[in-house]
Amino acid sequence: MKEVYEIDDLANRTLLDAGADRPARLAVFGQPIAHSASPRMHQAALDADGIAARYIRIEVPPGRVGEALGRMRDLGFIGCNITVPHKLEVMGVCDEVDPAARALGAVNTVRFDADGTRGFNTDGPGFAAAVRETLGLELRGLRVAILGAGGGAGRALAAQCVLSGVERVLLVNRTVSKLDELEKHLGALGSGSDLRLMDFSDPGLAESCRDCGLIVNASSVGLKAGDPALLPDSCFTPGQGVYDCIYQPPVTPLLAAALACGCRVANGRSMLIHQGALAYRLWFPGRDPLLTMAAALG
Ligand code: ATR
To answer: What are the chain's domains?
Structure first.
């Protein structure tokens, strides 16, 4: 058994399952992948449900996503999760992509059905469930600011907000020109949400952020020690919800600043759990792995 498998390990069952008491039938793949918490959550749920299957990590380089999926399918996998940097590439190699996943511009979950390979996105609905659970907020009718809206995660969350019928999305990105295409895409989703674009130096940023019921960090700022808070205190207002998709560290400088200003805050742990639980339920309808997954994550 390996901590991280490679695409060549998907050659046959003898190689893949050497030393294991159960067959690998689910996986997460990306590059890098060694850090992924998904196996911990999913294996706990499989074990709790008495399903004799392993959930493994596979390192897959860009350009080989179609090959990886084909090999898994041939080996009788149930499905897989896909993480950075493959969420876009995988859309092109599924037989069918769920319309919501297409709107979000990314696939993070695949199910191998008898009649084809189907792609889904549970990050967006997982985010909606996470803000409901941790902050008590419904996206419908809300005004939401998304920081780092030009990145892959930010684009998907902005689309989820629009699909969920938010009143307004304030798209904030360091490089505002990166938002033009996203604005067109969101507009074409036709929900009627008000779209506003800004960079972090816009003089109207503070007022526009205070005017939002929810501020979301979808950028990578806050991951590294020494990262700044991303927004000045003038952007926060007491009672406002502030969600950081980062979960390590658990309190980013943004969340610490927001807390000090009287905001209600939550980190990305809840989104990680909800996206995982939703993926599991696509493979095993009717199951409810949420509590098991949360406990397994620690
Ligand atoms: P992807 O998710 O597509 O891989 P990324 O390059 O990792 O994207 O960037 C994620 C987001 O973090 C982007 O919105 C990026 O802003 P730019 O589009 O302007 O590059 C944002 N980001 C990264 N470092 C940042 C910083 N120091 N300040 C503000 N935003 C930053």
So the answer is: 5-121 (3.40.50.10860), 124-270 (3.40.50.720)
B/e letters for 206-217, b = 16+ CB within 10 Å, e = fewer, are bebbeebbbbbb
Among residues 2, 87, 178, 224, the one annotated as catalytic is 87
Ligand 1 atom nearest to CA at 175: 19
180, containing H or E segment = helix 180-188
Q: What is the pLDDT of residue 117?
A: 98
Active site residue 87: yes
Instruction: Give me 227's structure tokens.
Output: 């990262």
Cα gap 68→61, rounded to integer Å: 10
pLDDT in tens, 176-209: 999 999 999 999 998 899 999 999 999 999 999 9
**Secondary-structure percent of the chain, ordered helix, strand, coil, rounded to 5:** 40, 20, 40
| pLDDT tens per residue, range 119-164 | 999 999 999 999 999 999 999 999 999 999 999 999 999 999 999 9
